[in-house]
Amino acid sequence: MPTILGQNQYGKAENRVVKITRDGATHHIKDLNVSVALSGDMDEVHYSGSNANVLPTDTTKNTVYAFAKEHGIESAEQFGIHLARHFVSSQEPIKTARIRIEEYSWERIESSDANSKFIGADEVKHSFVRKGQETRVTQITYGGSEWEVISGLKDLVVMNSTNSEFWGYVKDKYTTLPEAYDRILATQVSSRWRFNWTDDEQKMPNWEKSYEQTRKHMLQAFAETYSLSLQQTLYQMGSRIINNRSEIDEVRFSLPNKHHFLVDLEPFGLKNDNEVYFAADRPYGLIEATILRDGCEPKIPVDLTNL
After folding, report:
1. What's the CA gap between 12 and 38, in Å, rounded?
2. pLDDT band at residue 119 using 50, 70 and 90 as cut-offs
3. What's the rounded Cα separation, in Å, for the pair 96 and 11?
């Protein structure tokens, strides 16, 4: 039965690189997990095993570490852009480079006054504790003329302990869930947003500021929305981002419902006045949607796990 080669790519996945920038006694950390995928004129390596057009995956690994030194890591997005441009422009058979990056944040440990008089205030500017709030992610795709930059975050757990209701829903013979007029709303946010920047170096966003502000608007919308459904909250989060960040045209969310159920304390002669809850981890509701700037076509994949 005749066969043909379809979509293919290759590269080095999960290159962990930690870059320390030393500003005198003050140090700064960028901690990245970088995956490189290259595609182009690669038919022969599949059909005949010829490696004539193949840049070794070990070379892509070495490039990640060398670029951390040569270019530094200003932001995950900027670092990915440097890498993608290099692979496409330096290797004629390579037509498209896709760089996926996870960034792990570190927070500086501040010294107490008591400690600083013994070891000196400057000496504690190199100590850090790993932040556990979320993982920052980005994907850069370059095809030789235009760029696509999609950034986001995952595993950001948020909760509203009130100002959330859920009632008026469809009921059938299998429905047992009681209506709730004051409930906990909690979720673990996975989100991606697509930038409208394509190739103009002069109009390149400030990637660090953009991430900080996008995250801020996302959290503010979550906190300030009186929620009648998680879908409503999701839409407010995406709309707040689109309306306040002109560099972003599309936001996609995947929000698993982290259910909290009131515990029945009546068998113990106790009244549970919205105070004691059971936190269930599964099964869970999963709410997903894409929010777009009017007139823009969706491009972020429906399944965020494949991004």
Report:
1. 9
2. very low
3. 12
d(CA 290, CA 5): 32
* Residues that are catalytic: 12, 57, 259
User: Rounded distance, CA 44 to CA 87, Å?
Assistant: 19
pTM: 0.90
CB neighbourhood size of 128 (10 A): 15
Predicted confidence (pLDDT) at residue 116 exceeds the cutoff of 60: no
- As a dihedral over the C-alpha atoms of residue 216, residue 218, residue 219, residue 224, rounded to 10 degrees, the angle is 120
pLDDT in tens, 128-158: 887 788 999 999 999 999 899 999 999 999 9
Rg (CA), the chain: 24
pLDDT exceeds cutoff 50 at 30: yes
| 63 contacts 86 by C-beta, under 8 angstroms | yes
Sole residue written with tokens 């409930």 = 183
pLDDT grade for 113, boundaries at 50, 70 and 90: low
**Residue 200 in contact with residue 262, Cβ under 8 Å?**
no
Cβ atoms of 139 and 100 closer than 8 Å: yes
Indicate the helix (H) or strand (E) that contains 82.
Answer: helix 76-90
Query: How far apart (Å, rounded) are the C-alpha atoms in residues 21 and 108?
Result: 14
Helix (H) or strand (E) holding 100: strand 94-104
CA angle 150–154–155, rounded 5-degree value: 175
pLDDT band (50, 70, 90) for residue 121 = very low
